[in-house]
Amino acid sequence: MASDNYSTVTEFILQSFSENPQVQILIFSLFLGLFVVAFTGNSLIITVISLNPGLHTPMYFFLMNLALLDVLSTLTVVPKLLQNLITRNTISYGGCLAQIYFLTWCLGAELLLFTVMAFDRYAAICQPLHYTTIMNKTVCFLMAFTVWAISGVNITIQIIMTLHLSFCGPNTIDHYFCEIPLLLPLSCSSTDVNKVMEIVADMFFAIFNFLLILVSYGFIISSILKIRTKEGKKRAFSTCSSHLIVVSLYYCTIIYIYILPGLGQSLKKGKVASVIYAIVTPALNPLIYSLRNKDVKIALNKLCPFLRK
Predict the structure, then answer these.
(1) pTM higher than 0.90 for the full model?
(2) CA diameter of the chain
(3) 20, 265, 278, 282: which is deepest, by most CB within 10 A?
(4) Which is nearest to 248 in space by CA: 292, 213, 212?
């Protein structure tokens, strides 16, 4: 090789779901169905919000960003996963790093976006008279740009650090797709700095943002309880219930995969959970937001009349 730091490994072997061909076909059909639902549903949300002026509000602007992140994350993982279910379970060195780059970028951006969405609900419910001033267009675009930029800078640094590692074998990744925590143990050079960077990133993106969301919803729940009418409480809670459901789905899997291993929990048990946040949750998000949101359902019916009952 031209450089001592350059990897001698040209491809990695990924774990298969099953050795039984019939089970493989069943899993392939399931993942293909989830991919179609995730891609179609999130694309519809992006289209509906873009074309409907009535949905050009901060809440739906951030929802459109979430849908875009879901589309990108599923495109990063699922096509290769489907290919491996019918062919060899391998991925090239460059393909593995690319998968890590875009998946981690999307995952980090989503965690940051959940915090921004929680702040948006805090401003709407706790500061209703100043909401339009606090969440003006400039602020919303700046928040969205910051979300994408911070996550992008984080994974760019981690990938550059990974490129300086040597991989001389073994080349079997004990996972269904590439992720940094399971790639680092395969390196035959020191990964101490990489592990520190990974821990710092996990603390910031997962724990710190989760605490910010808890604080936001602490103020939100306190304000909702002060509303005198039941109808007012119901209306206020309905505006953030979908966000709470999606946040719960993500953080349950993130804590199980990234936080518990640091407390002694095996990474192997988190493989199924990682499939949930990479494939299942992006498919559920459009259903959660569209089925529980009257404005989105009305806009969907206008755009797609065949969806009407």
Answers:
(1) no
(2) 72
(3) 282
(4) 213
Residue with tokens 């019939």: 22
**Which candidate, 90, 249, 75, 279, places its Cα nearest to that of 178?**
90
**pLDDT computed for residue 306 by the predictor:** 52
